């Protein structure tokens, strides 16, 4: 038999767990907008402003000085030390042995999941939620249960008893993202305390995605020290550094560095050798000159971050006022992150609605269903831009509703 007579193998496929991953519905809406001139994009989670000059300059200087080599898996020592100081100031004593540098938040989430979950493990996630958190454990063969936030008079709220009941003794990991993408919900200190005590009792890992911790407006009575606080309540305020708590953070949001791919993990020192192995087999390290720029961000960026939060709060309030005046729109002011997650006529089929919005009036918002079935009925609007652009978006929304006879 010659080689050409061999049977043709079946079509090559990825593993079942990978094939079952949900494609991004935000991307699906963006694709529907291809060819539409002058789309106003509020669908992605990033600002329309470039990273600050002092950070770009630090990267340029590092490149000019030849920072083009591999680094330690866990990050360069000065950045780990700078991060340990930054975290210590915000959340209490933290050693550089508790800090690892990652290639942004999404890589940190993958590393955290790889550290603690495997095939068949039970994971619980609080939803609606940015899809990556729910999909990442599935890549590893874990089974993800969700506990939905409820929407009511006071905005998005957690049913604590429901969450504690879902955290059964055989649960391996809890995934909680606060401030939350997409809802802007912020977990209160008391809720964190109760969840931490419960997880301690049952040996459940908490993976806390706190990438929006600085985008916290402290004006919703979340906790006693809320007003004027520089961060949202964090599990790091309550947990010892050597217990089953892994906090994921990023340079993307507080310093507008989405394209740089730089983040960090705070975790027990006992995990670091194994975490270093995982970093080696994923990315080996974050780019050296990007890490140098990270030092500038954490050491010199406090004023920048505080001004950013002030601007975001003004944008949030502006959009809340403008959208609240649109008949049929229902929203509550969210205490954190950079999104409004609201209901409007047609949102019960949010994917179709968002495709129609971009096709017909060039308004780019994300469908609530992209954040899990619990997000259906809502749309997400990222308000990290100037108010003139927000006004132009609201005007398009009104035009769309008028065309569809909604008012
Ligand atoms: C909840 C949440 N976690 C993590 C990330 C990861 O961001 P990055 O990978 O840019 O750090 C995002 C990005 O939008 C997010 O919304």
Automatic annotation (TrEMBL):
SUPFAM superfamilies: PLP-dependent transferases. One of its GO terms (molecular function) is transaminase activity. One of its GO terms (biological process) is amino acid metabolic process. Its cofactor is pyridoxal 5'-phosphate. Residues 50-397 form the Aminotransferase class I/classII large domain. Keywords: Aminotransferase, Pyridoxal phosphate, Transferase. InterPro entries: Aminotransferase_I/II_large (IPR004839), AspAT/PAT-like (IPR050596), NHTrfase_class1_PyrdxlP-BS (IPR004838), PyrdxlP-dep_Trfase (IPR015424), PyrdxlP-dep_Trfase_major (IPR015421), PyrdxlP-dep_Trfase_small (IPR015422). Signal peptide: none annotated. Its EC number is 2.6.1.-. It comes from the Bacteria. Belongs to the class-I pyridoxal-phosphate-dependent aminotransferase family. NCBIfam families: PRK06108.1. This is Aminotransferase. It comes from Paraburkholderia lacunae. The lineage of its organism: Bacteria, Pseudomonadati, Pseudomonadota, Betaproteobacteria, Burkholderiales.
